[in-house]
Structures are given as C-alpha cells and as structure tokens.
Amino acid sequence: AQSVSQHNHHVILSEAASLELGCNYSYGGTVNLFWYVQYPGQHLQLLLKYFSGDPLVKGIKGFEAEFIKSKFSFNLRKPSVQWSDTAEYFCAVMIKAAGNKLTFGGGTRVLVKP
Amino acid sequence: EAQVTQNPRYLITVTGKKLTVTCSQNMNHEYMSWYRQDPGLGLRQIYYSMNVEVTDKGDVPEGYKVSRKEKRNFPLILESPSPNQTSLYFCASSLARPTGPGGANVLTFGAGSRLTVL
Predict the structure, then answer these.
(1) Beta-strand (E) ranges in chain B?
(2) B36 versus B104: which is more confidently predicted?
(3) Given CB atoms, is B43 within the 8 Å cutoff of chain A?
(4) Binding-site residues on chain A for chain B (CB distance < 8 A)
(5) Cα separation of A111 and A13, whole Å?
(6) What percent of chain A has pLDDT over 90?
(7) Distance, CA of B66 to CA of B10 (rounded, Å)
(8) Across the A/B interface, how many CB contacts are shorter than 8 Å?
(9) Most CB within 10 Å of its CB: which of B65, B66, B69, B103?
C-alpha cells in the first residue's frame, strides 16, 4: 500500500523566513500529488496540485511545489512566509488505479511568529 | 454555493450510544469519502464510495458503517461508539472520472465534525 511521509511535524519560523516542507511517497506508478492547508479552526483547502506536465507547480498565496519523480518527492516551498501562513499542511497522493484513494501524510504544523 | 455539508459540527456522546454524522454535497459528485483526523496521524480514510450503492473500506473502517442510497448523501454511522473514536471527522467529495486536466480528482472537504465519546 502507498504511504506518504512528511518529515517535519512542527516548524516554527519568523515572518519573511523561507519555508520548505518535505513530502515523500512510496508508489512506483503514476500519481497525482496535492498539498492541502488547514488554517486554525477551518477545514482543509487545496493549496496546489500536480497531475502532469511541468514538475514545478504554483499554488495560491505564493506557494509552490516541485515534483521530483526520481526521489518520489513533492516538497512545498514559500520564499517569504507571513503570520497568516500559520496552519497545518498536508501532503497527499492519489492513485487512480486504487480507486481515487487519497492517502495523506501526517501533517506539518507551521507556526509563523510575527 | 458548491459545498459539502456535515452535521453535527460538534457532538459529545457516551460509549455505546449509536450516532450518525450526515454528509451532503450539492455538486453531483460521484465519489465521496470519510476521513478521521488525529494529531500526528494526518487524515486516515474510513470508507469511500465510488457511486450510489457502491461503498468500500478505507484504512480504518473498524467500528464504522456507511451507506450511499442517494448520490448526494453519505452518512457515517457509529453503531456503538467507543472512546478511541474520539476524533475530528471530515467528509469529502469529488468527480470520480476525470473530465479533463485539472479539477476532476480534487476533493472538496466539509467543515468537519468534532466527536467526543466519553
């Protein structure tokens, strides 16, 4: 069965710092990749997705992620964070061959200090 | 407005008292799914449904039941809740079959239902 690993459980940084969250998955076939964000007290929202094409995808709020197939990775980045980026971030992998099942990573809590 | 609606949003109950969390979507989505979110474990899939009358187990189905009698509704049933089912539950839906590049496989989530079993 596929699995998704997010290496950092908690990240604390100051405003204007750069952010990179790691995500690795275990599946050798074709995948769709997602990053979701959950702001405090809210439901999950899609940040960005990769289906095919350019492996560098840009999402909302200045976030981007790079799909590196050889490393089975889909790391999320933002050059300069803001206090409003405080949230929990989830990487997810979807395999069509598994009936559109979406497998989530354990999440990374990001706290941005003003 | 396109959305997934869950009820109740908050519930405190006692061990063994049957409860149902409802989920309804207005987007004519074929695929619906239930997840539970626990600290450090992310979201784990409980059950999913590819279409009406088609349901299947996810990763953590024990202690739960679902039904899909209508396309828009996908209730989650806890026949005899136990304290280890205390969690935050999310319902989500999407188009099961891709209609083109982009959004077909993107899940839309409900606002969540926080359940506490004493």
Answers:
(1) 4-7, 10-13, 19-25, 31-38, 42-51, 54-57, 65-66, 76-78, 87-94, 108-109, 113-117
(2) B36
(3) yes
(4) 4, 6, 9, 32, 34, 42-46, 49, 51-52, 90, 92, 94, 96, 99-107
(5) 6
(6) 68
(7) 19
(8) 56
(9) B66
Judged on CB neighbours under 10 Å (0-12, 13-18, 19+), B103 is: middle
Q: Is A92 helix (H, G, I), strand (E, B) or coil?
A: strand
Please, are residues A114 and A17 in contact by the beta-carbon 8 Å criterion?
no
> pLDDT over 90 for what percent of chain B?
76
Distance between CA atoms of B116 and B118, rounded to whole angstroms?
A: 6
Q: What is the pLDDT of residues B72-92, one digit of tens each?
A: 999 999 999 999 999 999 999
- Nearest residue of A to residue B55 by CA position? A99
Which positions in chain B touch A44 (Cβ < 8 Å)? 43, 90, 92, 109
Has residue A5 got a pLDDT over 50? yes
User: Is the Cβ pair B56, A99 closer than 8 Å?
Assistant: yes
CB contact under 8 A, A106 and B94: no
Pair A34, A92: CB distance under 8 Å:
yes
A102 pLDDT band (50/70/90 cuts)? confident
Nearest chain B CA: its distance from A15 CA (Å): 25
- Residue A107, pLDDT > 60, answer yes
Please name the amino acid found at residue B27: M
